[in-house]
Write a structure and sequence with these properties.
heterodimer; A: about 450 residues; alpha/beta; 4-stranded parallel sheet; 17 helices; B: about 300 residues; 12 helices; about 15% strand; globular
Chain lengths: ~450, ~300
């Protein structure tokens, strides 16, 4: 059943769902009406605009049922590993084990948004002294206390070192509350000294001293040992290599989806669904095979729309490159409501999108991937990658969205903006996106509209 | 002599001095500003003041930043964008449980050494380093035993509420806090801030200094100084509990800079672990009204303890 691409409300999705079902829509186990998630307290869905494709329906249902998958994994006797902070590397290791499911408790940072604070996770964090001067990831602490959102993991790992203070401090509180954590060190990525052996990292933008790669490998060995102990079986190179290969299949799919969507004359998949799709690469939303299937669906949908010259926004919609994930999903809708379209992103985990090397020993490959994290080097490094990607995707403007309270955002946004203005001459807008934007929506929209006007003005001969 | 400025206690002064350079651990002034570093919302005032000092300090030949906190790690980016002054970022491992981390710290000191040599320093021999370390240790010993603070039974403390001051680094100009506590009838028996006793390295072992001075330096600094940012940071709590007991501390002032997540997150734990009345003093260092608020809160806290 084909249909003109349109962004529709949750209510409209019910009618659309009935039509799709009547037309024979086949769904996986997690399928169903989107509106049923309201019963779980996912009230934010009422304020979002969704892509009306079956691929998007599957994507949303998959995202919103992760808690059920984790609960099922516990029931099935599988080991649950909470991998914190590194965003993309240790999850690959965990999924190499047959009886392990890994997830990022960090993802709890979206719960206050999705549930519109109805679960009071931020209030629980407040009661522990972790107030709104911290990044919204503090919701993770509340999620551990209430134990309502995911099973308490059998193993918790956390990368520290060149990471943000918010997360490190919250993880420390978590440990003090009795949740034992296996800490591992990720060093600040520095430029190699003259004559020092170095390695080019995945993504081909950053390099790291050979000694730093060796060190990161020694730290991942700690994670490997902890995983083996928890799973009660060996995690050898062959298993890791297979997991890397699987991860790369997903990363290649996502890369193709990004290329198709971000370079299409008309945007075939909206910004919000693309944000969710990119997030899947981090830990597969607790199911690797489903993730691959969903990305394939989205890619097929995108290609169909591109070939029909169908999509969202006008052909001349200003192309915006977005930096940092947003605490409120609705922000991505606002971008399009202001007449712009997404043409590229850097959501702090480009290292989870770049293929992991398959021609070196697995831990070496994973160490290189971990060191390619854009957040562990200098802000100028990160800005250089953003500039390169923005050029590749022919961006006309960049939005750097700040995460309220995040220790890195106070400085980094300014450095990135300065660098982009100097090297790409693109207009750059910095905006802060709180977990619920409703009260500040007009201000955010006004600023994005001004950016759109600026881009249009710059196009004039 | 070339002057190298730094502020983090994990930068060993002995290491810089042994290179024939002058180590200068600066405590920036709260009013230290630079046109190059405009006020930025969310930026820690200490990191901002240090950056401003580095940019405006014409007497120093180089500055050492560390990765002890995210803000200091990132503020170095801002400084290198705005000045040609040589800067160095020392990578401090946050974990300490395995030998690779100590090795990383030592490798970082070696890298610092190479940078110091580009500024006119000379790589020290083992003997020179050991002698420098022993000399510095002697001075630190004198400082540790000076005054009567270490003897809480001294009569000069009679009638005063004995307090511990805990928290991040104190800016120059903010040391008036000590006078304020005195005026309110208290006495700071333990300065457990990052500019106080908390950050003193361990005493060096003379034999170890002779055998492997760099390793001994790493032990006394990296392995021994408790820090809020270490993961886990159990050594900080062990140290605080012991010191509060030793100094007969009756109350704790936790002074933290707004936007310092590391100390802010630990306030609840401090209260639980130390089992003492605790004043959570968030300071912004942004003017007279802020200092009056601070004074008022300290007065009220002291009244409750008297």
């Amino acid at each position: 059943m084909t249909c003109t691409p349109r962004q529709i409300t949750l209510d409209e999705w019910d009618a659309r769902y009935d039509a799709l079902k009547a037309a024979g829509l086949a769904e996986p186990a997690c399928g169903g009406r989107l509106s049923r998630h309201l019963a779980d307290g996912d009230y934010r869905l009422r304020k979002l605009s969704f892509d009306n494709s079956p691929a998007a329906l599957r994507l949303w249902n998959f995202l919103l049922t992760e808690e059920e998958r984790l609960a099922q994994a516990r029931t099935d006797g599988r080991k649950i590993v909470g991998v914190m902070k590194d965003l993309g590397t240790t999850a690959v290791m965990a999924y190499a084990l047959p009886n392990v499911v890994a997830f990022y408790p960090d993802g709890a940072w979206w719960i206050p948004c999705v549930m519109e604070n109805s679960d009071r996770l931020l209030a629980v964090a407040d009661s522990l002294g972790i107030d709104d001067s911290f990044c919204p990831v503090r919701a993770m602490l509340g999620a551990f206390i209430t134990a309502n959102h995911f099973p308490i993991p059998d193993l918790l790992t956390c990368s520290v070192g060149a990471t943000c203070d918010d997360f490190s401090a919250i993880a420390q509180r978590l440990e003090a509350l009795g949740h034992k954590i296996v800490w591992w060190e990720i060093p600040h990525r520095r430029p190699p000294e003259p004559d020092e052996p170095y390695v080019t990292l995945p993504g081909q933008i950053f390099t790291a001293a050979r000694s730093q790669v060796d060190f990161a490998r020694s730290q991942l060995r700690i994670v490997q040992n902890a995983l083996q102990q928890t799973a009660g079986c060996t995690l050898d190179d062959e298993m890791l290599a297979a997991a890397i290969s699987h991860a790369n299949r997903i990363r290649r799919l996502l890369a193709e989806l990004r290329r198709t969507v971000y370079t299409a004359p008309r945007c075939p998949i909206p910004a919000l669904e693309m944000l969710i799709a990119e997030m899947l690469a981090i830990h597969y939303c607790s199911n690797r095979d489903q993730t691959a299937a969903i990305l394939q669906d989205l890619l097929a949908q995108a290609r169909t729309r591109v070939s029909a010259d169908a999509g969202f926004a006008d052909h001349d919609a200003p192309k915006v490159f977005w930096v940092n994930p947003v605490a409120d999903l609705r922000a991505m809708n606002i971008l399009e409501q202001c007449g712009a379209r997404l043409c590229g992103t850097e959501y702090m985990f480009t290292h989870a999108l770049d293929p992991i090397p398959e021609d070196v020993e697995p831990l070496e490959a994973l160490a290189r991937a971990a060191l390619a994290d854009p957040m562990i080097g200098s802000a100028r490094d990160r800005a250089a990658r953003i500039a390169a990607d923005a050029r590749d995707f022919h961006a006309e403007a960049v939005i750097v969205s700040r995460i309220p309270g995040a220790s890195h955002c106070a400085l980094e946004g300014r450095i990135i903006a300065d660098h982009l203005r100097k090297t790409t001459h693109l207009p750059v807008l910095e905006i802060e996106i709180p977990p619920l934007t409703d009260a500040v929506r007009p201000a955010i929209a006004t600023r994005i509209e001004a950016l759109v006007e600026t881009v249009k003005h710059r196009r004039r001969p | 002599m070339q002057r190298i400025v730094y502020t983090c206690p994990f930068v060993p002064a002995e290491w810089i001095a042994a290179h024939g350079l002058q180590p200068a651990r600066v405590v920036p002034r709260s009013d230290c500003t630079s046109a190059a570093i405009p006020p930025i919302e969310g930026l820690c005032t200490f990191a901002q003041a240090f950056a401003a000092q580095v940019i405006s300090d014409s007497l120093s030949q180089g500055a050492v930043f560390t990765t002890a906190c995210d803000q200091m790690r990132r503020v170095r980016d801002l400084v290198t964008d705005r000045t040609t002054a040589p800067t160095f970022l020392l990578n401090l491992p946050k974990t300490w449980q395995n030998s690779e981390c100590t090795q990383l710290y030592m490798d970082e000191l070696r890298r610092l050494s190479r940078w110091l040599c580009t500024l006119g320093g000379r790589p020290p021999s083992g003997e020179t380093l050991a002698a420098t370390m022993i000399d510095f240790d002697r001075h630190r010993h004198a400082m540790r035993t000076a005054g009567c603070k270490t003897q809480p039974s001294c009569p000069c403390h009679d009638g005063r509420v004995k307090l511990a001051l805990v928290g991040g680094p104190i800016l120059a100009g903010e040391f008036r806090l000590f006078d304020l506590v005195e005026r309110c009838g208290g006495r700071i028996m333990l300065d457990a801030t990052e500019t106080g006793e908390l950050s003193l390295p361990d005493t060096f072992d003379a034999d170890h200094c002779r055998r492997d001075p760099l390793r001994e330096l790493a032990r006394a600094y990296f392995q021994s100084i408790p820090a809020v940012w270490k993961r886990p940071n159990t050594s900080l709590f062990d140290w605080l509990k012991q010191m509060c007991r030793n100094r007969n501390v009756q109350g704790v002032i936790c002074r933290r800079l707004v936007w310092c997540d590391l100390w802010h997150a630990e306030v609840h734990r401090l209260r639980d672990a130390l089992q003492l009345p605790l004043l959570d003093l968030d300071v912004t260092d942004d003017g007279k009204s802020a200092s009056e608020r601070t004074a008022c809160r300290i007065q009220a806290f002291m009244e409750t303890l008297q």
